[in-house]
Amino acid sequence: MVSIRRAAASDFTEIWPILHDIFSQWNTYVFPPDITVEEAYHIWMETPVAIYVALENAQIVGTYFLKPNQPGLGSHVCNAGYAVSSKARGKGIGQAMCEHSLKEAKTLGFKAMQYNFVVSTNQAAVNLWEKCGFNIVGRLPNAFNHKEIGFVDAYIMYQQLID
């Protein structure tokens, strides 16, 4: 069973291998594959408003963050980023984190959630986000340079959190 809690700075020693594995594959995130530990720490642990970890058997198997998508007059819409360990995929951890993030975003006062850059070839993520209530509201043609395929589209996905 997965549990989700707020992350502590000390959790980054377990978060970093998950991020490094995902970023180095060049197929789902825009971060450079050679990102340094320090750069990843800043992006994942310092910039967001809230960071969470998903645990299975007391080990971190996933993580996500929440942050305002834009400053000022756009700050009521949040953005989130998710990462699941390759060893834990297919166990519902991504869905559990998404559902948790939607509740946490409401608790933090956000009115909507927007994913700015969902790589179109990441069909598992697209399907999951749609299952969790997100809609594709925009397409960015050839916006992502996929390691194996070359330039592919990215989607903007959105969900209101208020009725």
TrEMBL record:
Gene3D superfamilies: 3.40.630.30. InterPro entries: Acyl_CoA_acyltransferase (IPR016181), GNAT_dom (IPR000182), Mito_N-acetyltransferase (IPR052742). Residues 2-162 form the N-acetyltransferase domain. This is N-acetyltransferase domain-containing protein. PANTHER family: ACETYLTRANSFERASE, GNAT FAMILY, N-ACETYLTRANSFERASE ACA1. Coiled coil: none annotated. Pfam families: Acetyltransf_1. SUPFAM superfamilies: Acyl-CoA N-acyltransferases (Nat) (SSF55729).
